[in-house]
Design goal:
Layout: H1 4-16, H2 19-26, H3 30-44, E1 49-52, E2 55-58, H4 60-89, E3 92-96, H5 98-103, H6 105-116, E4 120-124, H7 128-137, E5 146-147
Parallel strand pairs: 3-4
Antiparallel strand pairs: 1-2, 4-5
Helix pairs in contact: 1-2, 1-4, 2-3
Length: 156
Amino acid sequence: MITIQQMKSFIETAETGSLTKAARNLFVSQPALTKQIAAMEKALGCTLLLRRTSGVELTEAGRYLFDRAQAIVGLYEQTLQGLDGLLRRSPLRIGALPSLASHYLPELAAALQEALGRETAVTVGDTSRELADKVLRGTWMPPSSKIGPTASPMKP
């Protein structure tokens, strides 16, 4: 099996045509990159690069992998960006006891919202067990408990 990082290293090597240049661009040593490419070749059971004194050249298998590796890495990066976008759109949820919620959380929630760029919502419960039960039931975030940078938390 090959990894995304190995694919990225292979792509960089193919694009630069040089293990030395690719290693420099990837901030790894040339022997480490060579070992990584050799591990890919072993895992795939084929030679991907022809090593020449002037650099490297893709084999037929290397060209085949190069096209697909670019697509795979591109899709992988798009997926990570999409997931990050989903995370940023979902509210950060905090459960707290009334004593903490009224004194500490308004300022903390506002700071978290500003720092993370995410809506911050606080649920207040009278006991830790009550908060845990709400989480387990999926009922711990009523709409009235959402707070903004200047609002105070509200009891459900």
